[in-house]
TrEMBL record:
Keyword check for Membrane: yes
Molecular-function annotations in GO: metal ion binding; oxidoreductase activity
Protein topology in the membrane: Multi-pass membrane protein
Keywords recorded for this protein, A-Z: Cell membrane, Disulfide bond, Heme biosynthesis, Iron, Membrane, Metal-binding, Oxidoreductase, Transmembrane, Transmembrane helix
Presence of keyword Ribonucleoprotein: no
A UniProt-annotated Pfam family: COX15-CtaA
Name of the molecule in the record: Cytochrome oxidase assembly protein
Amino acid sequence: MPAARASWVRPILLANLIGEGLIVVTGGVVRLTGSGLGCPTWPECVPGSFVPVPHQEQGIHKFIEFGNRTLTGLVGILALLSIWAVVTHWPRRRPMHWVAYGVLAGVVAQAVLGGITVRTGLNPFSVAGHFLLSMVLVALSTALVRGAEDTESGPGDLLVHPLARLLALATAAMGTVVLVLGTVVTGSGPHSGDAVTPARTGFDPRFVSWMHADAVMFFCGLVIASLVAVRLTAKDGRANRAWNVVLLVTVLQGVIGYVQYFTALPEVLVLAHMFGATALVVALAYGVLDLRSNPV
Protein backbone atom coordinates (compact mmCIF):
# COMPACT_ATOMS: atom_id res chain seq x y z
CA MET A 1 0.00 0.00 0.00
CA PRO A 2 1.36 3.49 -0.82
CA ALA A 3 2.64 5.38 2.24
CA ALA A 4 0.03 8.12 1.87
CA ARG A 5 -2.79 5.58 1.90
CA ALA A 6 -1.17 3.58 4.73
CA SER A 7 -1.21 6.68 6.93
CA TRP A 8 -5.02 6.51 6.92
CA VAL A 9 -5.26 2.95 8.25
CA ARG A 10 -5.04 3.67 11.97
CA PRO A 11 -7.29 6.80 11.80
CA ILE A 12 -9.95 4.73 10.00
CA LEU A 13 -9.79 1.99 12.62
CA LEU A 14 -9.84 4.55 15.42
CA ALA A 15 -12.84 6.30 13.85
CA ASN A 16 -14.59 2.93 13.69
CA LEU A 17 -14.00 2.40 17.41
CA ILE A 18 -15.22 5.91 18.25
CA GLY A 19 -18.31 5.32 16.12
CA GLU A 20 -19.12 2.13 18.02
CA GLY A 21 -18.74 4.03 21.29
CA LEU A 22 -20.98 6.84 20.08
CA ILE A 23 -23.74 4.43 19.12
CA VAL A 24 -23.78 3.25 22.75
CA VAL A 25 -24.02 6.82 24.05
CA THR A 26 -26.73 7.86 21.59
CA GLY A 27 -28.60 4.65 22.35
CA GLY A 28 -28.49 5.65 25.99
CA VAL A 29 -29.84 9.09 25.13
CA VAL A 30 -32.70 7.42 23.22
CA ARG A 31 -33.56 5.31 26.22
CA LEU A 32 -33.20 8.00 28.89
CA THR A 33 -35.28 10.53 26.98
CA GLY A 34 -38.06 8.03 26.39
CA SER A 35 -37.46 8.08 22.63
CA GLY A 36 -37.26 4.35 22.04
CA LEU A 37 -40.43 4.43 19.97
CA GLY A 38 -39.84 7.86 18.45
CA CYS A 39 -39.89 5.97 15.18
CA PRO A 40 -42.66 3.46 15.99
CA THR A 41 -41.87 0.99 13.22
CA TRP A 42 -38.88 -0.52 11.39
CA PRO A 43 -37.21 -0.33 8.90
CA GLU A 44 -39.38 2.70 8.19
CA CYS A 45 -39.64 5.47 10.76
CA VAL A 46 -43.40 5.69 10.26
CA PRO A 47 -45.50 3.70 7.80
CA GLY A 48 -44.73 5.05 4.33
CA SER A 49 -41.61 7.03 5.24
CA PHE A 50 -38.07 6.13 6.23
CA VAL A 51 -37.60 9.57 7.81
CA PRO A 52 -39.67 11.49 10.38
CA VAL A 53 -42.63 13.36 8.92
CA PRO A 54 -44.12 16.74 9.94
CA HIS A 55 -46.75 16.66 12.66
CA GLN A 56 -45.69 13.16 13.74
CA GLU A 57 -47.15 12.65 17.22
CA GLN A 58 -43.80 11.56 18.71
CA GLY A 59 -42.52 15.15 18.62
CA ILE A 60 -38.84 15.62 19.48
CA HIS A 61 -38.49 11.90 20.22
CA LYS A 62 -38.73 11.07 16.51
CA PHE A 63 -35.56 13.08 15.80
CA ILE A 64 -33.65 11.51 18.69
CA GLU A 65 -34.50 7.97 17.59
CA PHE A 66 -33.94 8.74 13.91
CA GLY A 67 -30.55 10.27 14.76
CA ASN A 68 -29.54 7.03 16.44
CA ARG A 69 -30.65 5.05 13.37
CA THR A 70 -28.67 7.38 11.12
CA LEU A 71 -25.55 6.83 13.23
CA THR A 72 -25.99 3.10 12.65
CA GLY A 73 -25.58 3.79 8.94
CA LEU A 74 -22.40 5.74 9.66
CA VAL A 75 -20.84 2.92 11.68
CA GLY A 76 -21.73 0.58 8.82
CA ILE A 77 -19.72 2.77 6.44
CA LEU A 78 -16.83 2.86 8.93
CA ALA A 79 -16.95 -0.93 9.20
CA LEU A 80 -16.66 -1.23 5.41
CA LEU A 81 -13.76 1.24 5.39
CA SER A 82 -12.09 -0.78 8.14
CA ILE A 83 -12.29 -3.94 6.03
CA TRP A 84 -10.79 -2.08 3.08
CA ALA A 85 -7.99 -0.66 5.24
CA VAL A 86 -7.12 -3.98 6.87
CA VAL A 87 -7.29 -6.17 3.77
CA THR A 88 -5.31 -3.80 1.55
CA HIS A 89 -2.69 -2.87 4.14
CA TRP A 90 -2.22 -6.36 5.65
CA PRO A 91 -3.23 -8.81 2.90
CA ARG A 92 -1.78 -11.79 4.83
CA ARG A 93 -3.01 -10.95 8.34
CA ARG A 94 -6.02 -13.24 8.31
CA PRO A 95 -6.94 -12.75 11.99
CA MET A 96 -7.24 -9.00 11.40
CA HIS A 97 -9.40 -9.70 8.33
CA TRP A 98 -11.79 -11.88 10.33
CA VAL A 99 -12.08 -9.33 13.12
CA ALA A 100 -12.92 -6.63 10.57
CA TYR A 101 -15.52 -8.87 8.92
CA GLY A 102 -16.91 -9.58 12.37
CA VAL A 103 -17.43 -5.87 12.99
CA LEU A 104 -19.43 -5.49 9.78
CA ALA A 105 -21.50 -8.60 10.51
CA GLY A 106 -22.17 -7.24 13.99
CA VAL A 107 -23.35 -3.89 12.65
CA VAL A 108 -25.82 -5.66 10.37
CA ALA A 109 -27.01 -7.86 13.25
CA GLN A 110 -27.32 -4.75 15.43
CA ALA A 111 -29.60 -3.07 12.90
CA VAL A 112 -31.82 -6.16 12.70
CA LEU A 113 -31.91 -6.53 16.49
CA GLY A 114 -32.81 -2.85 16.76
CA GLY A 115 -35.76 -3.48 14.47
CA ILE A 116 -36.85 -6.44 16.58
CA THR A 117 -36.58 -4.25 19.68
CA VAL A 118 -38.90 -1.64 18.17
CA ARG A 119 -41.39 -4.17 16.85
CA THR A 120 -41.60 -5.90 20.24
CA GLY A 121 -42.38 -2.64 22.03
CA LEU A 122 -38.90 -2.36 23.62
CA ASN A 123 -38.83 -5.83 25.15
CA PRO A 124 -36.22 -5.54 27.95
CA PHE A 125 -34.38 -8.70 26.93
CA SER A 126 -34.12 -7.49 23.34
CA VAL A 127 -32.89 -4.12 24.60
CA ALA A 128 -30.30 -5.90 26.75
CA GLY A 129 -29.12 -7.93 23.75
CA HIS A 130 -28.89 -4.73 21.73
CA PHE A 131 -26.53 -3.22 24.33
CA LEU A 132 -24.45 -6.36 24.81
CA LEU A 133 -23.93 -6.73 21.07
CA SER A 134 -22.63 -3.16 21.07
CA MET A 135 -20.11 -4.21 23.73
CA VAL A 136 -18.95 -7.07 21.47
CA LEU A 137 -18.51 -4.61 18.60
CA VAL A 138 -16.53 -2.26 20.85
CA ALA A 139 -14.23 -5.13 21.83
CA LEU A 140 -13.70 -6.19 18.20
CA SER A 141 -13.07 -2.60 17.12
CA THR A 142 -10.55 -2.23 19.94
CA ALA A 143 -8.77 -5.34 18.69
CA LEU A 144 -8.42 -3.72 15.26
CA VAL A 145 -6.92 -0.56 16.76
CA ARG A 146 -4.56 -2.62 18.92
CA GLY A 147 -3.61 -4.79 15.95
CA ALA A 148 -2.69 -1.69 13.94
CA GLU A 149 0.12 -1.06 16.44
CA ASP A 150 1.95 -4.18 15.21
CA THR A 151 3.82 -4.64 11.97
CA GLU A 152 4.03 -8.43 12.07
CA SER A 153 1.30 -11.04 11.75
CA GLY A 154 0.57 -14.17 13.68
CA PRO A 155 0.58 -14.73 17.45
CA GLY A 156 3.79 -13.53 19.05
CA ASP A 157 5.44 -14.33 22.37
CA LEU A 158 3.53 -14.38 25.64
CA LEU A 159 4.78 -11.43 27.68
CA VAL A 160 3.62 -12.64 31.10
CA HIS A 161 3.51 -15.93 33.00
CA PRO A 162 0.80 -18.25 31.59
CA LEU A 163 -1.03 -18.20 34.91
CA ALA A 164 -1.13 -14.39 34.79
CA ARG A 165 -2.74 -14.58 31.35
CA LEU A 166 -5.23 -17.18 32.61
CA LEU A 167 -6.13 -14.87 35.49
CA ALA A 168 -6.56 -11.96 33.08
CA LEU A 169 -8.88 -14.04 30.88
CA ALA A 170 -10.91 -15.00 33.96
CA THR A 171 -11.15 -11.30 34.84
CA ALA A 172 -12.41 -10.46 31.36
CA ALA A 173 -14.97 -13.28 31.61
CA MET A 174 -16.15 -11.92 34.96
CA GLY A 175 -16.38 -8.50 33.36
CA THR A 176 -18.80 -10.03 30.86
CA VAL A 177 -20.92 -11.36 33.73
CA VAL A 178 -20.94 -7.87 35.29
CA LEU A 179 -22.14 -6.35 32.01
CA VAL A 180 -24.90 -8.92 31.61
CA LEU A 181 -26.12 -8.36 35.17
CA GLY A 182 -25.96 -4.63 34.55
CA THR A 183 -28.44 -4.98 31.70
CA VAL A 184 -30.73 -6.97 33.98
CA VAL A 185 -30.59 -4.16 36.55
CA THR A 186 -31.41 -1.57 33.90
CA GLY A 187 -34.18 -3.74 32.50
CA SER A 188 -35.72 -3.97 35.97
CA GLY A 189 -35.52 -0.25 36.72
CA PRO A 190 -37.43 2.88 35.73
CA HIS A 191 -35.84 3.69 32.37
CA SER A 192 -37.85 1.66 29.86
CA GLY A 193 -37.27 3.94 26.87
CA ASP A 194 -40.98 4.85 26.72
CA ALA A 195 -42.35 1.41 25.91
CA VAL A 196 -46.00 1.07 24.89
CA THR A 197 -46.60 -1.02 28.01
CA PRO A 198 -44.28 -1.33 31.05
CA ALA A 199 -41.38 -3.25 29.51
CA ARG A 200 -39.67 -4.51 32.63
CA THR A 201 -38.11 -7.87 33.39
CA GLY A 202 -40.29 -8.43 36.43
CA PHE A 203 -37.28 -8.96 38.70
CA ASP A 204 -37.02 -7.07 41.96
CA PRO A 205 -34.78 -4.03 41.20
CA ARG A 206 -33.13 -4.06 44.63
CA PHE A 207 -32.31 -7.77 44.49
CA VAL A 208 -30.76 -7.65 41.01
CA SER A 209 -28.85 -4.49 41.98
CA TRP A 210 -27.33 -6.37 44.92
CA MET A 211 -26.42 -9.28 42.64
CA HIS A 212 -24.77 -6.85 40.26
CA ALA A 213 -22.90 -5.16 43.12
CA ASP A 214 -21.64 -8.52 44.45
CA ALA A 215 -20.39 -9.44 40.98
CA VAL A 216 -18.66 -6.06 40.71
CA MET A 217 -16.84 -6.61 44.03
CA PHE A 218 -15.64 -10.03 42.87
CA PHE A 219 -14.59 -8.48 39.57
CA CYS A 220 -12.63 -5.76 41.40
CA GLY A 221 -10.75 -8.45 43.31
CA LEU A 222 -9.85 -10.20 40.06
CA VAL A 223 -8.68 -6.92 38.53
CA ILE A 224 -6.33 -6.31 41.46
CA ALA A 225 -5.06 -9.89 41.33
CA SER A 226 -4.45 -9.62 37.58
CA LEU A 227 -2.63 -6.34 38.02
CA VAL A 228 -0.34 -7.84 40.66
CA ALA A 229 0.32 -10.95 38.54
CA VAL A 230 1.14 -8.83 35.49
CA ARG A 231 3.43 -6.54 37.49
CA LEU A 232 5.35 -9.51 38.84
CA THR A 233 5.81 -11.34 35.54
CA ALA A 234 5.52 -8.87 32.63
CA LYS A 235 8.51 -8.63 30.29
CA ASP A 236 7.76 -5.02 29.29
CA GLY A 237 5.77 -2.02 30.54
CA ARG A 238 2.89 -2.20 28.05
CA ALA A 239 0.95 -4.85 29.95
CA ASN A 240 1.49 -3.00 33.24
CA ARG A 241 0.11 0.22 31.78
CA ALA A 242 -2.90 -1.57 30.30
CA TRP A 243 -3.90 -3.10 33.63
CA ASN A 244 -3.34 0.19 35.45
CA VAL A 245 -5.97 1.62 33.10
CA VAL A 246 -8.29 -1.33 33.77
CA LEU A 247 -8.06 -0.66 37.50
CA LEU A 248 -8.66 3.07 37.07
CA VAL A 249 -11.71 2.60 34.85
CA THR A 250 -13.07 -0.08 37.20
CA VAL A 251 -12.83 2.23 40.22
CA LEU A 252 -14.45 5.15 38.40
CA GLN A 253 -17.22 2.93 37.05
CA GLY A 254 -17.86 1.50 40.50
CA VAL A 255 -18.12 4.97 42.03
CA ILE A 256 -20.59 6.09 39.36
CA GLY A 257 -22.62 2.92 39.84
CA TYR A 258 -22.98 3.33 43.60
CA VAL A 259 -23.72 7.05 43.38
CA GLN A 260 -26.46 6.53 40.78
CA TYR A 261 -28.02 3.78 42.91
CA PHE A 262 -28.18 5.95 46.04
CA THR A 263 -29.41 9.02 44.12
CA ALA A 264 -32.41 7.31 42.49
CA LEU A 265 -30.82 6.76 39.06
CA PRO A 266 -30.54 10.31 37.63
CA GLU A 267 -30.36 10.20 33.83
CA VAL A 268 -26.97 11.93 33.61
CA LEU A 269 -25.30 9.35 35.85
CA VAL A 270 -27.00 6.44 34.07
CA LEU A 271 -25.61 7.74 30.78
CA ALA A 272 -22.17 8.18 32.36
CA HIS A 273 -22.38 4.58 33.62
CA MET A 274 -23.13 3.36 30.09
CA PHE A 275 -20.14 5.30 28.76
CA GLY A 276 -18.05 3.83 31.58
CA ALA A 277 -19.10 0.33 30.55
CA THR A 278 -17.85 1.07 27.05
CA ALA A 279 -14.55 2.39 28.41
CA LEU A 280 -14.20 -0.71 30.58
CA VAL A 281 -14.62 -3.00 27.57
CA VAL A 282 -11.93 -1.07 25.71
CA ALA A 283 -9.61 -1.24 28.72
CA LEU A 284 -10.18 -4.98 29.25
CA ALA A 285 -9.61 -5.69 25.55
CA TYR A 286 -6.29 -3.87 25.70
CA GLY A 287 -5.46 -5.58 28.99
CA VAL A 288 -5.87 -9.04 27.47
CA LEU A 289 -4.32 -8.25 24.08
CA ASP A 290 -1.26 -6.55 25.56
CA LEU A 291 -0.25 -9.78 27.28
CA ARG A 292 1.11 -11.07 23.96
CA SER A 293 3.12 -9.49 21.19
CA ASN A 294 1.28 -9.35 17.86
CA PRO A 295 -1.99 -10.61 19.41
CA VAL A 296 -4.15 -10.14 16.31
